[in-house]
Amino acid sequence: MNARRPALDIAIAGGGMVGAACALALARRGFSVALLEVREPVPWHAGEPEDLRVIALAPSSARLLDELGVWQTIRATRVPPYRRMHVWDAASGAEVSFDAAREGRAQLGWIVENKLIAWTLWQALDTAGVRRLCPASVESFVSRDDRVVLDLGNGEHLSAALLVIADGADSRLREQAAIAVHGRDYHQRAVVAHVATEREHEETAWQRFTREGPIALLPLAGGRSSIVWSLPEARAREVLALDDSAFCEVVGVASDFRLGRITRTTPRASFPLRLQIADRFAAGRCLLIGDAAHAVHPLAGQGANLGLRDVAELASVLGDARESGRNFAAPHVLRRYARRRRAASALDAHAFDALERMFMWQSPAWAALRGAGMRAVDALGPLKHGLAAHAAG
Ligand SMILES: Cc1cc2nc3c(=O)[nH]c(=O)nc-3n(C[C@H](O)[C@H](O)[C@H](O)COP(=O)(O)OP(=O)(O)OC[C@H]3O[C@@H](n4cnc5c(N)ncnc54)[C@H](O)[C@@H]3O)c2cc1C
Question: What is the pTM of this model?
Answer without folding.
Answer: 0.96
